[in-house]
Design a protein that fits this description.
13% strand; 365 residues; five-stranded antiparallel beta sheet; alpha+beta; 43% helix; Phosphorylase Kinase, domain 1
Length: 365
């Protein structure tokens, strides 16, 4: 019998036809003997998801189905021109689908379930478990130290499970040191500096200039460090937060920027981007040490404490490109909306303050 081809995917996650959803749920063995009769689509995300669009799907079926199919999340590629170009360049759906298929089954930390997908060369779609009963993290509001600590524990378990694993080299969807903020940004520096120099101060501006001038040395240093599976965009907007002490206390989402690199980059991204300086004050060492001790407890050997601190400093310096890139990509200083202007500000001040608080510049000396 000739296998029927799937219906064409929707052009928008809010325009899903029952036939398309029915085909993929049936093909993946999720439903049998019942049909999808209608689909209600609820848009999600607003300006939070820059590399993708999402909708919550609530299907109606001709019979009973498992509870976890009562609603689903459909994630598709962005249509914003610049961000679409970034998504295509980074092959973000290849990375995220690859993560859920090859890495997620090997780790113990709680993750969303992937039901069906088509990476389509990097700009495809994914049907995921609906976890909307959990609170969405908010980058502007930030995270508490307890939430940062728990996230780093979960991420540390994933880092440890993949630490220096040669098997990661077998995944063609998983590039090395490929970060969304790793771009040539010197042309955007003058406008960024003009906008922020009085608020950041001369010392901070001088530190950022030094990083830009020595960016190759910084990237080369990171490339020499032990490699693991790195999230690459670990921040509040990519977390779901549940009841403290539950299995759903922290769920890490959005693995579109997964890469092989130095694990401390994720620590730098989370502490620097999502932990407000006032909340983080006095807790620098305990946040870092919680991640480091998780690595040791999970079997990572020959990774000394001072090495890990140096790696964190390298990661924080690398992350200083984020404020410049976000400012440029959001059209600063003429931002498209208030949230993007706020996001540019919080990422700038948090990452710069973190690099200063951790004396990160000494890693380039």
């Amino acid at each position: 019998m000739t296998k029927l081809s799937p219906p064409d995917p929707p052009s928008d996650p809010t325009q899903v036809q029952p036939e398309w959803l029915d085909w993929h749920l049936t093909e993946n063995g999720l439903i049998s003997g019942v049909k999808v009769t209608s689909v209600h689509c609820e848009p999600m995300g607003g300006s939070v998801g820059f590399l993708s669009r999402m909708a919550r799907l609530v299907p109606q079926y001709s019979g009973s189905v498992p509870e976890n199919l009562h609603s689903l999340i459909l994630k598709m590629g962005t249509t914003r021109p610049h961000f679409q170009e970034v998504a295509d360049r980074l092959h973000v759906f290849d990375r995220e689908v690859g993560f859920y298929k090859h890495i997620a089954p090997t780790v113990t930390t709680r993750l969303a379930k992937l039901f069906a997908s088509d990476p389509a060369g990097g700009s495809g779609w994914m049907l995921l478990e609906d976890l909307c009963f959990l609170e969405k993290g908010d980058q502007i509001h930030g995270l508490s130290n307890a939430q940062v600590s728990m996230t780093l524990q979960h991420m540390g378990e994933i880092h440890a499970a993949n630490w220096s694993q040669s098997s990661l080299n077998n995944f063609d969807w998983l590039p090395e040191d490929s970060f969304w903020f790793k771009e040539e940004l010197s042309s955007a520096w003058d406008e960024f500096r003009k906008h922020y120099e009085l608020r950041l101060g001369r010392a901070a501006i001088a530190m950022m200039e030094q990083v830009l001038e020595r960016i190759k040395k910084l990237d080369d240093a990171i490339a020499m460090r032990p490699r693991t599976l790195v999230h690459g965009d670990l921040r509040a907007d990519n977390l779901l937060l549940g009841k403290p002490g539950s299995n759903d206390e922290v769920l890490i989402l959005d693995w579109q920027t997964a890469t092989r690199s130095m694990g401390a980059v994720d620590v730098a991204l989370l502490i620097g981007g999502s932990d407000p300086p006032a909340e983080r004050s006095g807790h620098y060492n305990e946040l870092f040490d919680g991640w480091y001790e998780t690595l040791l407890a999970q079997g990572v050997a020959n990774y000394h404490h001072q090495e890990a601190i140096n790696d964190l400093q390298l990661g924080m310096l690398s992350a200083l490109r984020i404020p410049i890139k976000v400012f440029r990509d959001f059209g600063g200083p003429n931002f498209r909306n208030a949230r993007e202007a706020q996001l540019a500000d919080v990422l700038t001040f948090r990452h710069v303050n973190a690099a200063i608080d951790f004396d990160a510049i000494q890693a380039l000396s």
